[in-house]
Design brief:
The chain has 307 residues and is of the alpha/beta class. It has a single domain, classed as Alpha-Beta Barrel (TIM Barrel). α8 links the parallel β15 and β16. α5 runs parallel beside α6 and α8 crosses α10. The two termini are 26 Å apart.
Length: 307
Amino acid sequence: MKIDFLGVRFANPIVLASGILGVTAASLKRCIDLGAGGVTIKSLSLKSRTGHRNPTMGGYDHFFLNAVGLSNPGIEAGIKEIKKFKKICHAPLIGSVFAGNVAEFGIVTKRICSAPIDILEIDISCPNVGEEFDTPFAYSVEAAVAITKVVKKYAKRVPVSMKLSPNAWNIGAIAAACEQAGADAITAINTASGMTIDSAFQAPFLSNTVGGVSGPALKPIALKAVWDVYNSVKRIPIIATGGVTSGEDAAEMMLAGGTLVGVGSAVFWRGPDVFGKIVAELKQYMKQHNMRNVKSIIGKAHKSRSA
């Protein structure tokens, strides 16, 4: 089940996605103890953010909706937690940052890369902060390229994965442009934009009106995005995330082209030990299909289709 990703060795391909449980060193380590091969810290900004006012999230039969608003303690506090994590755990840690403009992406990247992170994920695709940051950068090839270039300038030793949005109609073209601009990997995808209305109160449920859809309902959208990205990039790998709750889901993401598989809101449906459950189910899938190495799953659906 061991797998290399950008020169970093993971015990298995299942990683904690950003924004779920990854706030403190202790919560990150717990995910590793429960079976994750690696973890992604909650996205950090230059300064601390309180996010949106409640209600900010809700769980439903087949999806989760959130508009937390990128609340986080800020880059300096986040770096302290990263350092604490590395003292108590040797598993790979993926840093995650976001910013309001291109120059700020460079500043926050430089700061987080002073911490012992293994990979850096650049969040240019949050769907619920449009009033503050305007149109997400992940909708524009030009913006995605500009940010990729500036973060690569400051990341230096740390490989960079650009986190893209399912709301962009041309996600494949954006991924290819990021690769040409120097990105080392693509994370596909962030949550999809959506909303719910409370029929009793006859008003949007979230205080922010719109939020990000995650959970099982997101999986077919995520699979299509991973498929498109895999067909569009030439060399770089993919962190596939969105709607994964089982080992079969993880296998599908890898068949579509993912090398690592992000798991987030599945914790809501199956508990915090979902990481170990998915790893066990993925092992069983491999056994059923006579696969001895997890790498043999990556992109196989493309090969089968062409054959």
